[in-house]
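tool=predict chain=A
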Amino acid sequence: MPDKPNQVGNPSSPDEPRWQWPLDDAGWRWQAGKAPPTEPGNPSPGQPVSLPHCWNAAEEYRPGIVPRRGWATYELDLAGIPSPPDREWRLRCEGFYGTGRAWVNRRPVGCFNGDYLGFDLDVTAALRPGANRIVVQVSNRHSRKVLPGLADPDFHLYGGLGGGMHLVALPRVRLVRNECRAEPDAARPGALAIDVGAVNRAGDRAVRTLQIVVRDPSGQTVAAPEPAELAVSSGEPASRRFLCEVPAPRLWSPESPELYSVEATLREGDQVRDRLSWTFGWRTVRFEAAHGMLLNGRPVVLRGVNRHENLPGFGFALPRALHAEDARLIKEMGLDFVRLSHYPQSPAFLDACDRLGLLVYAELCSWKNIRGGSWLAAAESQLERMIRRDRHHPSIVLWGLGNEGRHRGAFLRLQALARELDPSRATIYAENHARRARRKKTAGLTDVWGLNYELEELDFARTAAPTGCVVVSECANLPYARRGHWPAEAQQTALIRDAVRRVEGAGPGAVGWTLWCFADYATPRRQRWFRECGMVDGWRAAKTAADWLRARYRPEPFLSVRGDWSRAAGPRRRLYVVTNCAEVEIVRADGTRAVRSTPLADLYEWDVDFDGAPLRFLGRHPAGPVETRLVPWDAPAALALRAERLDSRNFRCALQVADAQGVAVRGYEGEALVRLPADVRASLIGGDRLPVHAGQAVFYVERPCDGSEVQLECVLDDFKPQIMRLAPEERAP
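tool=predict ok
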């Protein structure tokens, strides 16, 4: 454990009003159950973990293993906490599922509901100079008062502290991030309203000078309204609105995700007392029956996927790099839209959507269970927290008020709350039984209708919505499309193609679609240990469906070929070709050529004679040619490993099975064993046994925080074991 926490900012400098100590790698220990809080120095029996952490992470994709529900205890010792004058200390954690309580030095500092949004606890009175011990107990047991409010939704109720943890020292008179926002005026190009909130946790009324600076995407100052005086009474919030003009603002869109920033500074005389900054995008969104969704006045078709926030071996405790990687993969498939099903998701993912230009449908946590009473109270609380936290993100275009449940009173209250907190965005709820919505009179209560699967109800859905607009919020669900099972992958792709054609051919008001779903996942509900309905598998390896989306919605030439080209199969082979080229030429080793017409961006299934030689496929596209090859493979005989660094600690590793000549064996199915040295504090994410499909496997390794090199060994069948070294990140001199 380090002698002191990692410091962000310089505590000796008066110009750094906020000090922050990340606690993710500071030496946490975890144990199941409720361990009583103890004083620093007492030995802890827990096992070492880093945050974010999920204790169910190794229980997924294992048939018959019911994920653990219950309590667990996290414990951390800190040394060398300074005593800055006139500061309030807070312990903060980002979102996770579950309820809990916390202590500092055996002193209770609060109870909390993780609420997928985290907690923020005042620990000022409990901290002391020198050694301190933080204890956090959290439970993932189901409660009707905690969203989603039922025991077994079609997603995991993970246990653990899924968000990162940090300790912050804040000025007692300070700016409040969730009360700050920048809102472009849709009616006046270049006009901007900036709301800034502050709070006084000191004993006396305080008067500060508030200064605002707006910067464009290149970092240049484009607006600086006159500073204003802000009086903040003790224990009371205060706010100030600034109006300014920005000449010719650059618009945020999926094609050009331009991000502006606002910096707000509180001064007392010449001293900086607090400073906050955030980003926003200059864009307008309207939903109209005649044109669908208008982004910056231009019609946009929403083409997207549903996303669960999980990954095998991580559970819901994804590092920031993997959130960003998910956004990149969705964008790479040619999509512009993602639904966050069915709960608020990490700010790291939303930040990536802002940067990359992905439109977002954000949703409160619900699944077939929408009602009044304690559920509605919890829903209102979560919706308010989510909107206040996330409304600065230009990527968000819809607030989702529920999924596959109906309660007229609940929707009316949630709709009113969303409009009060953010009148600039439309609301939606996702319905899978239009007949029940008619009976319960819940049709037309949100601005846009979300339609799950019932494509025959498209006309009713758009006429029922006040805006005349419908988003197909789920469609094309095939839960057995395992990667490497090429006929099932083709069936999934055909299902997607048919759904997309129906929605995009439905006419005005059919705004777009989100496929179910982005990645394979697992759930204990009804023993659904494998839900293989993703465009990519759980480890993010692409399927035929991902190829089809890329061919259809990205402009560059694309050509992929999947199928069995092994020497052991029969003389006639079924190949699965996805392309956006006008024609594809097949070239055999003897020079024989055959041209296939492929006028549509689509999946083509071709029966081809096997001659024991490589095949070349040449695609002709207006933007240029593209080529791919199929090389025949013999019996599997070896494996190869490679690694890609995701950030300073996390690596994505890939395994490829090959024959004796080194040719990839794309039809291999099996299980590999990965071993790490016992004396190295690295983590093999997801356990040591890897499923291998279509000759490939993907896994993740987290290096120890001391930066040492990691060596791992991979064993598969009776092939020669392979060794791979993951070296520390090289630092610039």
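The longest strand covers residues 71-81. Residues 486-504 form the longest helix (19 residues).
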